[in-house]
Each structure stands twice: as C-alpha cells, then as structure tokens.
Write a structure and sequence with these properties.
Blueprint lengths: L2 E9 L4 E2 L6 E2 L4 E9 L1 E8 H6 L10 H5 L3 H7 L6 H12 L14 E3 L6 E4 L5 E3 L2
Antiparallel strand pairs: 1-4, 2-3, 4-5, 6-7, 7-8
The protein binds zinc ion (ZN) (2 copies).
Length: 133
C-alpha cells in the first residue's frame, strides 16, 4: 500500500508534468504535489483538472478499469472519450452528478487515506474505497 507523507496545493516554481494526463505545465501553475512512499519515496504532481477527476466525485472510485489503466488518457479512451481532461471532467460531471454510489462502510475497520482519491479512505483488508464521513 502507498503511504502518503504529504499532500498539498502549490504554485510551481519549475515546469512540471502532471502524472495523470502527462501534460507539461509551466512554472507558476497551481498544482497538487503529493509525496508518498511505495518502496521508494515519490513526488507526484497533478494538475487541477486531474485532481478533481480523481477526487472520487466523478469517476466511480471502485471502477475496475481505473485500476487497469496506467494513465488518465488510457482510462478516457477505455471510456470512448478522446477530448481533453477538462472536457472529460465536464462529461463526467454531467454523467455522474447523481449516479455515483457513495459507499460509506465495509465490514472491516482498517482504513487508511488513499493516495489518489482524496475524499476516500481505502480499506486495508478488502481494498475498497470508502467515502470519508
Ligand atoms: Zn493532469
Ligand atoms: Zn473492508
């Protein structure tokens, strides 16, 4: 399991690539930077749009396709979508506004913050994402 060491919004001082959409953003952009530990310590930058897409509000957080996709683009293509992440966010907002199942419990009591879905915890036992109260 990936352990989150820190997670914050920053105004970048150098150009950075968003790890989800792979687009490069100039210095001076609002981005999210997360430092996490998975064997090694990793520092990952994500753009505002991808951060919102991954909040768990718009994409079903337990979607199997999400686990099998390495990047957001791969996931979007799997969803037959070929626009920009911004267009995809609008598309998901329309599609999922009131449809996403918001799971609040499982049968275990062993939750850790999830490294990608900031509104959710991940159960260490069954790996389900559980919406934070
Ligand atoms: Zn992005
Ligand atoms: Zn569980």
């Amino acid at each position: 399991m990936i352990e989150i060491l820190s997670d914050k919004n920053v105004v970048t001082r150098k150009p950075h690539k968003c790890f989800l959409c792979s687009r490069k953003f100039d210095a001076g952009t609002d981005m999210n930077v997360q430092v996490n530990k998975y064997d090694d310590i990793n520092r990952v930058y994500s753009c505002k749009t991808c951060k919102e897409l991954m909040s768990g509000n718009w994409i079903e957080p337990n979607d199997e396709n999400m686990f099998e996709s390495d990047t957001l683009h791969e996931y979007m293509y799997g969803d037959n979508f070929s626009g920009t992440p911004e267009e995809y966010l609008q598309f998901k907002i329309k599609q999922n506004a009131d449809r996403i199942e918001r799971q609040r419990t499982c049968n275990h009591d062993n939750l850790k913050p999830d490294w990608q879905h900031r509104n959710y915890n991940r159960c260490v036992s069954c790996e389900k994402l559980i919406k934070k109260p």
